[in-house]
Structure formats: C-alpha cells, structure tokens
Amino acid sequence: MVQIENSILARPLAGLQQANFVYEYLAEGGITRITAIYLTPSGSQRIEPVRSARPVTIRLWHSYHGVLFFSGANIKVLQMIQDQHIPALTEGSDGAAYFVRDPSRRAPHNLYTDGSRIAQGISKYAPRVTYVLPSPAEPAASASPAPAVANRIVFDQTSFHRVIYTYSAADKAYAYRTALGPLVDQDTGQAIKPVNVIVIQVAHHDAGFTDVNGAPAVDFDLQGTGPADVFTRGHHYKATWDLSNPELPLKIVGADGKVMRLPAGLTWLHLVDPGTAVTSS
Questions:
Q1: pLDDT tens for residues 253-281?
Q2: Of 63, 7, 77, 8, whose CA–CA distance to 217 is shortest?
Q3: Domain check: are 272 and 152 in the same one?
C-alpha cells in the first residue's frame, strides 16, 4: 500500500498502471491523493512520488492490511499508525532500504520506491492475510437491469479536479484524463488506463486536526454501505459499495445483491461526495 501525490507538481506519476487497486480521494484544497495497492509487487519500475499518509489511509489499511509505504504524516496520523500497530515504512526505515530520491525532480515531489523494494518490505513486515478477493470475471451478459453504454465518463471529483475517461475497445480499458490533459504514467509514457473504474459516493468531514501542510485534515465516512457506479468493458452498472466489516476489503455489490466479479487489471476507485453528478455516454 503506497501513498502517492497527485498535485500538478507531482506529475507525471509513475508506477500506477502496475497496481491492482488505486483509491483516489480529496486531500486538501481540491487536490486529490492516491493510495495504490500492489498485491504481488515486483520489478524495478519506479512508483512515485511517495507522499504523506492521511486519515483515510488508516481505514484502507484495515481493509487490506499489508504494509504501508509513505513519507510522513500529521502527528495524529502517526500516532494512529503506532497505536494500531500498522506495519509502516518511511524513507529512513531499515537504513533507507525502501526509498530513493529522484534527482530529476524537485523535493518533496521526488521520493520513489519500486516493486522489488515493496516486496522486500512486505516479506519482512506484512501481517498474515486470510481474506480472499473475488476471482476476476467478465461482467454477466444477462445483467438486470441491462447496463448502459459508457464509452465516455465525466465527473468532478473535487471543485478543482475534473475526471474524464474514454473507453478503448482495443485496450479494453479507460484512458484517464483531467481538464489539463492525460494523466500520464511515466513508466508507460501513456495515459493511465484502468480496466475498471468505480465511483464511490461517501461523505467526508473535518478530521479535527491539520495536515502536514497546516490545512484541515479530511477523513471519510468509509463504513457501512452506499451507492456506487461501476464502469467496465464500456458499460455502466449501478451498484452498492459495502464496508460493513472494516477489517475486510471493500465489496462492490451488484443490483442482483451478489458481489460483483470484474475483469482482471487495474481497478481505480474514486471517492466522491454524495450526489456528485456522474455522466456517461
């Protein structure tokens, strides 16, 4: 589990195309932050830029467990990591074994790791994981109600971050762009292309303290259930997100009441305010 910055100064991002799950959520001032989850990390491709943990990071760790890779946090978040015995690695851990500074980028937007370093940390510190994720599968051909066509998706994740996805049948994936242009993965040189896009409606609130930049920290009511929109293979499915058990991975439940199985590949989950308009065509 790696914390990734998503400000304009942080781009291009790197290493996200190889993730299994990416959660993107409001951090502060309309800027989003990313928690990228790698189930079987490997290789030397850079994952950057690594930045601070946020309150919702703690919630996501409890859902997926594993090891948290990050660069600092507010003292309240650091205390939560310590009190809840969360395996967490920062730049100085084990003699700087897991992170390197990229000299081509300006600090603090230049800390990176890679799959091999993550795997090393996981092998040393990861707790035993007993949950089983749903196996990949194509969407049900006879889904009811029938899914709507969704070759283009548009929504405002924050007041400053418009998200635009365009589906490619050749890639069987959605190219991610913002109002400023494609959200590029430096490792591939192309727009990041999730296979599955999930928009989760969930309220956020002031966490009651400031973040490392002095702005009010944001936390999310990521518990229980709520509405979700699932986009895969060029179609839109209405669904429900379910985190009734905070110690198990978030589930996506289809209109038939069954846990949805989605195609293999990168799944990108956006946390948005309840009532956020999501248009697709």
A1: 999 999 999 999 999 999 999 999 999 99
A2: 77
A3: yes
Amino acid identity of residue 70, one-letter, is: F
C-alpha dihedral over 250, 184, 9, 209, to 10 degrees?
-10
What CATH number is associated with residue 38? 3.50.90.10
Determine how many CB atoms are found less than 10 A away from the CB of residue 97: 13
From residue 114, how far is each of 32, 46, 49, 229, 267 by CA, in Å?
Answer: 22, 5, 11, 31, 19
Asked if residue 44 is part of any domain, the answer here is yes
In this structure, the number of other CB atoms found within 10 A of the CB of residue 91 comes to 16
Q: Does 160 lie in the same domain as 112?
A: no
Q: Domain of 119?
A: 2-125
Q: pTM of the predicted model, to two decimals?
A: 0.97
Q: What is the pLDDT of residues 125-147, one digit of tens each?
A: 999 999 999 999 998 767 778 89
Domain match, 155 and 120 both: no
Is a pLDDT exceeding 70 seen at residue 29?
A: yes
Letter for the amino acid at 94? D
**What tens digit of pLDDT does each residue of 169-221 get?**
999 999 999 999 999 999 999 999 999 999 999 999 999 988 766 778 899 99
d(CA 208, CA 264): 38
Query: Residue 214's pLDDT is what?
Result: 75
What is the torsion angle, in degrees rounded to the nearest 10, for the CA atoms of residue 184, residue 186, residue 189 and residue 193? -50
What contacts 120, CB < 8 A, 6 or more positions away?
Answer: 97, 98
Read out DSSP for 189-243? TEE---SEEEEEE--EEEEEEE-TTSSEEEEE--SEEEEEEEEETTEEEEEEEEE
Same domain, 103 and 190: no
Across the range 69-96, mean pLDDT stands at 96
In a domain, 111, yes or no: yes
Do residues 111 and 181 share a domain? no
